Amino acid sequence: MSDHHGPAPFPLRGTWASGATPDPVTGLLGFPEFYACLPSFLEDRARHGQRVGIAIGDVDHLKSFVENTNATEPGSFGHLAGNALMSTLGRICSSWFHSTTFPFGCVSTFGGDEVIVAAVLNTTTEFATSIAALRDQCRRQLPRPVSFARTTIAPRLGTDWRPYAAETLSAVDKALFRRKAARCGTIDDLGFVVGLDEVVIQDVHPAA
After folding, report:
1. Residue 164, CA atoms < 13 Å, CB-side half-sphere
2. What is the pLDDT of residues 59-83, one digit of tens each?
3. What dotted CATH number matches 12-204?
4. Which member of 64, 105, 114, 143 has the lowest number of beta carbons within 10 Å of its beta carbon?
5. What is the β-pairing status of strands 105-110 and 114-120?
6. Where are the domains of the chain?
């Protein structure tokens, strides 16, 4: 994939977030639409007995990258360098998503430097392999690595879906930043993938 060509296809598979529009910087699904649709997506997957993979990625040391770029390049200011990096990250994520075989899912953006993957899984092992591949692509193509936390969940009928979705995202996000805090050294310490066991997520979100 070249960073100098047009945007990659919108990273959405299935009709569960139909009508959603791309985020203007990354080209990914905007977080408000993703967050609004996630509970019904999980409920529908529960009816079909399908597991869902959730991953959150955060750009490592983006602030220092932006500050260094602004200090060394006369035409750079504000978050311009950060936007350029996130635009490239969006294209990487979109191209990666369309290379997968997930039957349903999407990649969303969140905040200034995070991406969220939600995908229905064909096998129990493919999500870990796919997220590691995305991490590797980011490391090759971006000036800063991206670290990820991921889990698989088995949505169950009878669950209160909105808090389930929020608490699942919270658990994954907290795992990501706990690992970042434990590796608070150089960039070489980052660009990791940390996995949460499915049973941990189920214990956090008991069925109603």
Report:
1. 26
2. 999 999 999 999 999 999 999 999 9
3. 3.30.70.270
4. 64
5. antiparallel
6. 12-204
